[in-house]
Design brief:
With about 350 residues, this protein is α/β, with parallel strands linked by helices. About 45% of the residues lie in helices and about 10% in strands. The protein binds the ligand CC[C@H](O)CC(=O)C(=O)O and manganese (II) ion. Manganese (II) ion binds next to loops.
Length: about 350
């Protein structure tokens, strides 16, 4: 085994986990988590609102703390790790990207729906000009057949992305589907391939390992599963499993366990687990970040949140269409009240 990393893990709890705690991170929390991740040897730590730069809004959920303050706090303690930011074109703009870069963010992950890579070139180019490492992040990858995914990934490559990710936003992909997607990308592209899983069907670890088997070298994880829905591939577990497999991540297994137990667990009001809502996200193929919104809409209209999520899955709703959650809930409540007459 050499000292070089075989697999580069990006820790996403301080961005994807923002969904799970309704965007309530404080500077103190981010600083403590980022420092302990940095000290454990995690190479990339993503920090932003759950919906990426500029996501704080009534539609997506208001942040307790300005994300630029959070990024600055993370940068101030990361002397080894690079701080990454996520940007969904249209929610975030080049202006916020420049601000984040000025504060010291070194990686930009430009996220689009899996069929919409075309909206990314401007932001990828801007990130490159700012000297940032760039990632094309193809969300809701379960919604595209392999040839479509390859077409879109090639676009990301042509725009200058250093890496392209298969993003299982809904936690809906099965291992064989991950296998064929990553295999096809590996055969067709000359850049790094990454995988971002959600654990709604309890497959995030299996899917991450399959992705690695097929040649992915960039894998996302969230410590203590602090991510949307049931969370992501659990970073401390992934680190231990890869170590057992002789795959070098550069992360200290004991220190990573300590981050989970001592720094992140106390932040969670309830442990991240596969609840019936997160299970339905994976089962119906719905965005993991929709879970909290659906729960609130269900309470407001006195209906079962699973009915909302199943209907959203049928309608193939994509990220950015959060307003549909309340529409669907109102429709279901209306139908139910008609039935009771
Ligand atoms: C809404 C952005 C989303 O949370 C990005 C992501 O992590 C995913 O699609 O899984
Ligand atoms: Mn995610």
């Amino acid at each position: 085994m050499t000292n070089a990393r075989d697999i580069f893990i990006t820790e996403v709890a301080l961005r994807d986990g923002s969904h799970a705690i309704a965007h309530q991170f404080t500077v103190d929390q981010v600083q403590k988590v980022a420092k302990s991740l940095n000290d454990a040897g995690v190479p990339y730590i993503e920090v932003a609102h759950g919906d990426g730069l500029s996501g704080s809004s009534l539609q997506y959920g208001l942040s307790r703390t300005n994300e630029m303050e959070l990024i600055e706090a993370a940068v101030s303690v990361a002397d080894r790790a690079k701080i990454a930011v996520l940007l969904i074109p249209g929610i975030g703009t080049v202006k916020e990207l420049k601000e984040a870069a000025k504060l010291g963010a070194k990686m930009a992950r430009i996220a689009t729906h899996v069929t919409e890579a075309d909206v990314a070139p401007q932001h990828i180019a801007a990130a490159k000009e700012l000297g940032m490492e760039t990632v094309g992040f193809l969300m809701m990858s379960h919604m595209a057949p392999v040839d479509k995914l390859v077409e879109q990934a090639k676009k990301m490559e042509s725009y200058g992305a250093d890496t392209v990710y298969v993003v299982d936003s809904a936690g809906a992909l099965l291992p064989d589907q991950v296998r064929e997607k990553i295999r096809a990308l590996k055969q067709s592209l000359g850049i790094h391939i990454g995988f971002h899983g959600h654990n709604n069907l309890s497959l995030a670890m299996a899917n991450s390992l399959v992705a690695i088997e097929e040649g992915a070298t960039r894998i996302d994880g969230s410590v203590r599963c602090l991510g949307a829905g049931a969370g992501n591939t659990q970073t401390e577990v992934l680190t231990a499993v890869l170590d057992r497999m002789g795959i070098h991540t550069g992360i200290d297994v004991y220190k990573m366990m300590d981050v989970a137990e001592e720094t992140v667990a106390p932040i969670l009001q309830t442990p991240q687990e596969i609840t019936r809502d997160s299970l339905v996200l994976g089962y119906a193929g719905v965005y993991s970040s929709f879970a909290l919104h659906a729960k609130r809409a269900a309470a407001r209209f006195g209906i079962d949140s699973r009915d909302i999520l199943i209907e959203l899955g049928k309608r193939k709703v994509v990220g950015g269409q959060e307003d549909m959650i309340v529409d669907v809930a109102a429709e279901i409540a209306n139908v139910k009240s008609q039935e009771m007459l």
